Amino acid sequence: MEQKNTYEVHEIEKKWQKHWEKNRSFVAKDGDSRPRFYALEMFPYPSGNLHMGHVRNYTLGDVVARYQRMNGKNVLHPIGWDAFGLPAENAAIKNKVHPEKWTRQNIAVMREQLKALGISYDWEREFATCDEAYYKWNQWFFIKFFEKGWVYKKKASVNWCPSCLTVLANEQVSASGQCWRCDSVVQPKELEQWFIRITDFAEELLKGHELLKGKWPEEVLTMQQYWIGRSDGAEVHFSIEGRQDKLTVFTTRPDTLFGATFMAIAPEHPLAKELAAKVGKSAELDTLVKGQRERKRQRQEADEKAGFFLGVNAINPIHQKPVPIWVADYVLMDYGTGAIMAVPAHDQRDFEFATKYKIPVIEVIGDPAKPVAKFDKAMEADGVMMNSGEFNGTPSSDGKRKVGEWLKAKSQGKPTVTFKLRDWLVSRQRYWGTPIPMINCSRCGLVPVPEKELPVKLPTDVEFTGQGQSPLALSASFVNVKCPKCKGQAKRETDTMDTFVDSSWYYSRFCDSKNSTAPFDPVKANWLPVNQYIGGIEHACMHLIYSRFWHKAMKRLGLVSCDEPFDRLLAQGMVTLGGSAMSKSRGNVVDPNAIISKFGADTARMFILFAAPPTKQLEWSDAGVEGSWRFLNRVWRLINDTVAKSKPQGTLSEEQQKSLKRKTHWAIQKVTNDYGIEIQINTAIAAVMELVNELYLYPALGDATSKEAVRAVVQLLSPVAPHLMEDLWGILGEKGLCSESSWPKADPAWLVSDTVEIVIQINGKLRSRLQMAPGSSKDVLEREALADEKVKSFLAGKSVVKAIVVPDKLVNLVIK
RNA sequence: GGACUGGUGGCGGAAUGGCAUACGCGUACGGCUCAGGACCGUAUUCCGAAAGGAUUGCGGGUUCAAGUCCCGCCCAGUCCACCA
Q: Could you read off the pLDDT of A258-291 as tens digits, one per residue?
């Protein structure tokens, strides 16, 4: 009979998956005395199928979870579904399937795929954000935020398709500004929208970075810092000739106030509209507004700046001289005050505008002894104030502060701080999301739905035509309600919430996912913060800022006690094929199912962990997958051979035993560090490979040293290839589950060796090596080095100028 | 235009300022085989017969010693993009 040389992968994987489930091996236990560990991966959008990016994400998280479990931690490793969103609604319009049906079907498929991968989830805590039991709490939070004044309503611009008569999400507008369905040119339209006052938390979000330094990738913190965009400067009030109101600007350079030669206001500024009408240039203004929006939407490179004089002067408070007010298309309405004082000498954008329209340039920062004759570009660096009256001679850095103080003293402005972060627009004119739990009453205004009436459920009598405003508005039974305050006829809010709301607090729901009286029990939330969070870098700004904000809001509400939701963050790299991200449109997708059915989950997991460091881009390679498959079989044969030779077949020499022992403990040490501290799974696997290679060198397996080594191999690989290792654990005759066994400990005695190799360098170049006892003194090392034959030959006719000796490492002889 | 990350053999990648190229893929050779694209082993950065020399995108610098630190440049990827 032919001996099999590959293992029965599918049989083994199924067997252990069933066993773990029956045994409830991965269920997190509340009220357990062991130290807690919360491992979390960003939950998936149920798009239909798992892709390789998911496999990488969830496998990485699983190694962390399984490793911590074997280290005696009570591990929470949950999974759920980020289930609301546009694709479900698009599918509904195209295929006449209800979004919920489409979503639930996808979840069912993907759940099975995750189970087939053997990810050690606590499935008992699973939920989808489209569950009424979950989105009820989105609504509850919304109302709490409303009561706190963190939620408000104001007009904002949306994408409007004039042919479909519907609001479009940004993703539904093509790069050239056309509707995804009818190709009509999309127009901006002003609608009442809901906002969350995240800007109130800007300072706190920035401050939180202190806690995250060293635990989050520097890259992500930098991106967030830029996104939040704190600028220190001053507000300056300019009076306007012939008017009572003032024009307030924000500047980071109050020290240049004397050099403001014109005011520039945003085309969308209310004053621009009024003044443009007076000078008969409303049409020109409209062109500026449209051009600006167009560029913003298409992320176009800024071309030549444009604008015009609005016919009125402002008065510079610092010297009372008139300054013309212009409208300019490079000024943004939604940053600062929507108006600037333009200082062409010291700001490049102002300079370009001034040059084009022949506006004077006055140098106010520089060297008074050597004034610039003619500017060919703005001088933006700091310097000394000049042409600035009483402030002449003041360095800019002091000037910024002093002018701010002067303005404050004269009530003409004050030092102030501005952020780039905007309030979060959370309303969507969509069906498949959480209904906003508010009621519009003509007498009482905006009234929250009473808590006992939550959740406001999504209506089911809605047709998905893709037309009209919000699909919810099509349900009469949904819209028409009684006002909770005055009991009069009122109308329900028909917008739904941005799906980023769902993902902003889901991690805390996992602490208590079945709670029906609160989003979660604050006591059970002692799992927080998430110890290790893992996900794609693409969420560096949006999701990771929103959830940090939400967490801080929950803290203010007394629901959580820690400051940050995620203690350590790992931003995993993309999975690519042919150098670019896998995508259907590129046709370079590798289906995880195909890999699993050919080689099994363990091979798929191992390859994806081994092929690249977790944070780097991973290039898919079929040959590499086979390499992982071969390695696992190599381990399988090794263990079977060891067991077959349960009676020692000869013995290892003392040297071999020592060497194997050292390799074993070195590998334990290396893997422990790589799983638990660095999360460098690729090098951990390489270390186990080295140990396996050494085991293959020795013919006589079955002795105690070999058994210890083999046992370590199985445990060290268990987080990576859990199914096979579980099976081999049994074959080794071990009791219980490998996934529940105690992580092996490296014995420090075996981490040092009898001799160390000392590298001998001459002028920094490697010339020889010595075997020495560890801890040999510098003198001994130097003497031995000089006595070395090879060294002598290099020394002939030269003299040693200097000798650098690094104990247990090297001797470097500098010769002349 | 700006910010960030990276650039190491034929390929994926290793390397607390101290032996560059661990581990894997591929390739070659040998063993085992009826056979093998299975398995076991050996070799494998480049030049050179060897001694030896060169080598971590390019150019400089610091250091006894640089892939690693500093300065300038080139290239690739990601994100942001008129933020006063």
A: 999 999 999 999 999 999 999 999 999 999 988 8
| Residue numbers 755-784 of A with CB closer than 7 A to any atom of strand B | 757, 759, 761, 763-766, 769
Task: Please report which residue ranges of A652-799 form alpha helices under DSSP H.
Answer: 654-673, 681-697, 704-717, 722-731, 778-787, 789-795
Say if CB A639 and CB A728 are below 8 A apart. yes
Distance A389 CA to B15 C1' (A): 61
* Cβ contact A696:A638 at 8 Å: yes
Mark residues 400-419 of chain A whose C-beta is closer than 7 A to nucleic acid strand B.
418
State, as a whole number of angstroms, the distance between the CA of A160 and the C1' of B64: 70
**What nucleotides of chain B have any atom within 7 angstroms of a protein Cβ?**
3-5, 11-16, 18-20, 22-26, 38-42, 53-54, 64-66, 77-84
Element (H, E) at A552: helix A542-556
Largest CA distance in chain A: 108
Give yes or no for CB of A801 within 7 Å of strand B: no
Alpha-carbon span A201 to A548, nearest angstrom: 10
pLDDT digits (tens, 9 = 90+) for A727-749: 999 999 999 999 999 999 999 99
Using the C1' atom of nucleotide B19, identify the protein residue whose alpha carbon is closest: A759
Which residues have C-beta within 8 Å of that of residue A671, sequence separation ≥ 6?
A: A684, A687, A688, A716
pLDDT tens-place string over residues A755-797:
888 888 888 888 888 888 888 888 888 888 888 888 888 877 7
**Cα–Cα distance, A496 to A106 (Å, whole number):** 22
What is the mean predicted confidence (pLDDT) over A128-145? 97
| pTM summary value | 0.93
| Nearest alpha carbon to residue A688 among A651, A655, A735, A724 | A724
